[in-house]
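User: Can you help me understand a structure? I only have the sequence.
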Amino acid sequence: MNIYKLNNISNLSEGTAVTVGMFDGVHCGHQHILSMLKKAANERNLIPVVVTFDLHPRQVLGGNVGGADINSFYRVTTNEERYEQLQRHGINHVLEVHFTPEIAALSACQFFEQILIKQLHAKVLVLGFDNLFGSKQHYDFDQLPALAQSYNAEVLVDTPLSMHGVEVSSTQIRKALKNGDVALAAEMLGYSYRLWGNVVKGRQVGRTLGFPTANVCLDDTTKVMPADGVYAVNVHIQGRTEPLHGMANLGGQPTFGLDKPVFEVNIFDFDADIYNTILTIEFVQRLRDVRKFASVDDLISQLESDRNAAQHSF
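Assistant: Let's start by predicting it. Here is the structure, written out as tokens:
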């Protein structure tokens, strides 16, 4: 994949079909837009290009943006994950724009002229059904079709994609994850949601219960955390090819009087030393809430039920 900056896109002078957005998650709705982009480019002998930003606008503008406070905003995917998913769906050219207050101040038509036309030589602009870009203070988004026509360019608008009566969006995926509905999030994403981190020393209580756990210290704390609970998971161990099945606990350990949240994973039929190893955890299904048990024996009995339930979810 070629990831360009604004100062090194001279080799895209042949003419492009472009789409603009954060593409957080590169979910099924985004994938539909990408298919439309590639089809339009192929029919017109153009290069398909995704124009995106290195920082989410909420990270730069602060305050209340898009109905959510910046302090409560978390990403579905990191930049590396976004680009990996874009490439997986056939996109080989990405223009990553450094999002600054100056970029944010550009109206839609200014952004179209200064970047899409003058630098990318765009002949087609593909938009999602709810796709907006450009300054809200200098709103002129509705003038884009006429401006594009003046440059002999086209604007194509995709149709919405719905699942279970809800339009697929990054916002809806964040909502599903925060509700613990990782199965719905995966359906909207088209792949399982994942977190990753290094295995560190824990209290080592799990092994005394017959359920040894790997305590995971997350590498990226800007991603959405699913709701506290017990989950069936797939575990990718650094250096190993095939994932293993397991179950994960997100949240406190109330049976032991501990409220501090932990992320611990019990890997089924596995007994190797993996301290200081990176694990990637894919969430398959939420099994239950975190709760306090009357005794350790009750907890063990529940963990056995959890393991059986998890094994049936794979």
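Now, to help you interpret it: DSSP finds ten helices and 16 strands in the chain. The two ends are 33 Å apart (CA to CA). Let me know which part you'd like to focus on.
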